[in-house]
Amino acid sequence: MKMKRDKIMTFMDSMPTGIIVLDWRKLSDAYHLPVPPTITVWIRAPKDAARLAGILKTEYPGDHPLKFLDEDGVAMGGTTVDGLADSAILLESCAAVDIPPLPANHGFENFQDIVATLRSPGGCPWDREQTHQSIRDDFLQEAYELIDGLDRLDLEMIREELGDILLHVVMQAQMAAADGEFTMGDVIDGISEKMIFRHQHIFNRQETLTSDEVVDRWEKLKKAEREKKRKRQGLLDGISIAMPALSMAFGYQKRAARAGFDWDSVDGVWDKLAEEIAEFKAAATDEARSAEFGDILFTLVNLARRLKIDPETALRSTNRRFYDRFRYIEKRAEAQGKTVFDLTLAEMDALWEERKACEEG
Question: What residues have CB less than 8 Å from 340, skipping those under 6 apart?
């Protein structure tokens, strides 16, 4: 056994350059490959075909080829990422698994270089002119387009919009790096440290917590972070004022409720809603009506929270249904050589109900 191990070590020591060697004993505890997929990787003394396949699928397509190497570096056979489960015996008898690289355009580093090139002296004039603030609205638009894709469950749209958002993340980091403010590494280090700190029940000590207990601990740890940074903030200050109004109200109410500022039951919210509607009806000026209408919306958000409904998602879903139904009316009118302006209200109502019946049926 010692002779075989020495032979394997000699083989590894004399292997070609440009190859990353990972030891399975360390990799087996991971859930993601710790190196870019755009370089050749050898996994030494691999075990557990199903576990290895799960790790590789985070980076490689199912048909990506793999080679099994013996202690002399000679191929013993091959398979694909998807085929690993059927090659368990061969996997456990080999000295290493050879994973060839993906094309350079699959790597995050390559994408960073593309953005850096666009921002370089010989790059794109428009990209070079941009600042942190100038692309703010574009970033917000991309975020809304991603939400649209999520609402539609359109996976192709989600994939594309995630890429657009990634462009903004990399662009902002590239601008900061060029000005000596921070780098992409700083961004990744910061969020990694934050996630580990806020998930101590996973990374520091294994504990079994419920989802509610995780959220409660998350808020306490966030408070500890603020105190560590000497940020003297109130409970509601972590809610961004740039959020959509419904989401902001929802966030305020959730945090206030954690401090005990809440009704004992949902009945209290219903009573408050009736009170706010009565005040709205009694309002005598435009300013008063606007304020009371805001109170109605805020109370409706509270009702949604108590009933475990996300108000922003609910309203977006209603907007989507309205769009789809009205678009149906337009298409039916076009099929008759008309526009919606040519239809009576009764005709539009009939087409609306027709579309609604199709959705429910």
Answer: 329, 330, 333, 348
Fold of 2-103: 3.30.950
Write out the two tokens for 218. Answer: 């998350």
Q: Could you tell me which CATH class the domain 245-309 is placed in? A: mainly alpha
CA distances in angstroms from 132 to 128, 140, 165, 170, listed in the order given:
12, 13, 14, 11
Per-residue pLDDT of the chain (361 residues; tens, 9 = 90+): 454 445 555 555 555 667 899 999 888 888 888 898 999 999 999 999 999 999 999 999 999 999 999 988 899 999 999 999 899 999 989 999 999 999 988 889 999 999 999 999 999 999 999 999 999 989 999 999 999 999 889 999 999 999 999 999 999 999 999 999 999 999 999 999 989 888 888 887 777 778 877 777 777 777 777 666 666 678 888 788 888 899 999 999 998 998 899 999 999 999 999 999 999 999 999 999 999 999 999 999 999 999 999 999 999 999 999 999 999 999 999 999 999 999 999 999 999 999 999 988 7
Amino acid at site 118: L
Best CATH choice for the domain 108-198 from the list 3.40.30.10, 1.20.1420.30, 1.10.287.1080, 3.20.20.70:
1.10.287.1080
* Identical topology for domains 108-198 and 245-309: yes
- Nearest CA to 91 out of 66, 117, 109, 110 is that of 66
CA distance 305 to 253: 8
Gap between the Cα atoms of 288 and 150, Å rounded: 37
Q: What does each C-alpha distance from 329 to 64, 87, 91, 152, 339 come to in angstroms?
A: 48, 57, 60, 21, 9
Q: Cα–Cα distances in Å, from 64 out to 17, 78, 82, 98, 237? A: 22, 11, 8, 11, 48
